[in-house]
């Protein structure tokens, strides 16, 4: 991730009474959950965060075990603002002259973060490939493409192709044509995509950014349930517990409390 570093067992009986808050609630989303609907879990992600990459599959797995509405919100991190920036060569991986704007301490933090991510990526079967990014990418276009795919009901399939390619250094996240090609490979008709990027999609992404700031979001992946914000995929176990206690389980089986974020499962990205 990146950042400014006993329950009801009735299957599907998602109790509408809110879980007692463990922290002051965040400001409600502008598109708040209507009364009587399924519980909403919002997740903020940014393509350039390797920790968010690790969180994608176990986050989708929540829908297998709980009757919830999972809402993905693209978020654009300001990594350079707290970890500095640098650009490395695509082949030699050496820092390009004149681009190093990181202190020794920032380099140590960045190198540790990637080493840590690779430890967990190697546990997946098949393992996830995570190469360090060549630079601090502007992932605004990728975020808008996520919004476009979501509107056409193809967000999961789009993310399935987007994330592995980016972390193998096979995808230019700042190129409109590249993202359009990924959308088409997902089965999305890209007619109107360019206009969406320049207009409605750009405005929606800015709205999400502004709303996230008001809600106190500062890194990814971040989850919001009943006004409670949980930062980091390590909280997936606690998130499952909250949903279980709320009666949102799809089956009367306490084993669903086991969060799969440390497991070897890699079904979503296998083959992509």
Concise synopsis of the structure shown:
The chain is of the alpha+beta class and 272 residues long. The protein is built from 10 helices and 6 strands; from the N terminus they run ββααβαααααααβββα.
Provide an overview of this structure.
This protein has 272 residues and is of the alpha+beta class. It has ten helices and six strands. The chain has helices at 50-60, 62-65, 80-83, 104-121, 140-151, 155-167, 176-185, 193-198, 200-215, 236-245; strands at residues 2-3, 39-45, 68-74, 219-220, 222-225, 228-231. A four-stranded mixed sheet has the order 3-2-5-6, sandwiched between helices. β5 (222-225) and β6 (228-231) form a beta hairpin. It is globular and about 60 Å long. It starts with a strand and ends in a 27-residue tail after the last helix.
Bulk shape: globular
Gyration radius, in Å: 19 Å
Query: Ranges with pLDDT <50 over ≥5 residues?
Result: 1-13, 15-25, 27-36
Mean pLDDT: 87
- Strand order, biggest sheet? 3-2-5-6
**Distance between the ends:** 22 Å
Structural class: alpha+beta
Number of separate helices: 10
Number of strands: 6
N-to-C SSE string, H for helix and E for strand: EEHHEHHHHHHHEEEH
Largest sheet: 4 strands, mixed
Strand content: 5-15%
Q: Helix coverage percent of residues?
A: 25-40%
